[in-house]
Amino acid sequence: MDRGQVLFRLFGKYCPAGTILYTEGSPGDELFFVQSGAVRVEPGGGSAAHPEERGPGRILGEEAFFGRVPRAGRAEVVTDSRLLLVSDRTLDAVARHGPEVLRTVAERLLELAGEGAQRLDAWALARLALRAEPHLRTAGPLSPAELAELAGLSAGDAQAVLEALAERGALARAAGGYLVTEAAALERTVLAMAAAATAA
Length: 200
Hints:
The chain is an alpha+beta fold. It is built from 7 helices and 8 strands.
């Protein structure tokens, strides 16, 4: 049995779509890791943040859990999900097996969060590339600042997209910026990035 299965036996709960994990003002006595599926997190009243879907490897409910304060928003399972529920009670139960077991559990939970962040980064980069691709088909080199203005990206996002496409051979570095060598190759690369991010 791999560590993911062990963690699910210790902390896991299957939650079908439509399950409400918490509502605004409810006690923050658990935090959640998403092993599979997706959870929609809605900010509480007065927050300027937008609702967000969190998929595998993401964590939710940590602010209330660690801050020992009531929930500031609402979370609902949107696709059938396997979640890890961590509370003081479950952590105490694991700790009774000794510090090595607790350390192993903590390390795996951190790995899950890191894997989810990597997937999120790949998907974010793919979305930026899809947004930038139509603006890259220019006659001459395009600088990060020019792409940022054309595609409505931040300077940092424009630079990240150009570098990622250059590393994959879809763009060539040239004096004054980046140059498309073959439009079809650029399109294939962007679509491949989106497919890989979706499959991850």
